[in-house]
Request: fold
Amino acid sequence: SDELNQAFSVLPDNVFVIPAESQISTYEVMLNCDTVLIYATKMGIELSAFGVPVVVAGEAWIRNKGFSYDTSTPEEYFELLDQLPQNRRLDGPTRERARKYAYHYFFRRMIPLEFVQPGRGGLFGFDLSLDSIESLAPGRSLGLDVICDGILNGTDFIYPAESYAADGEGATSTPMLADHLTLP
Reply:
């Protein structure tokens, strides 16, 4: 809000700034919006999955995924703004595409490492919880296997979350990727 106050002495009536320390939930506000404009944020992933139309200005995770309004020039952006409000949510197939991407992003691209725990601060703010160095051997952690396979063999860094129960059962000690890893 400081940047806005420096740039504009008076904000337009349709611009509201919610301070970071506010008790108002960003999600509550966004889910009640007709359309949301984003720039360089992953919030568009979540909002699209809830059916909220999202206009992308600049780079964002959802750009060119088929469920957002992507603009590439200032002219396109302002032309799209002139069409607002739209007074509608994303249609069924578009919302389904957004939900699939949200699943992919949050459950397949975010690779769990069960031995990394929130820490007491330090340089990186996490602690390693290992019984021994053998805990890092191939086949002991699927997440680590995915990362090593990506680095060593050039495969995609995608965790096969759909193969595992929601409670995390089976998420460790599987030989699925370890069988194919070749360490130097």
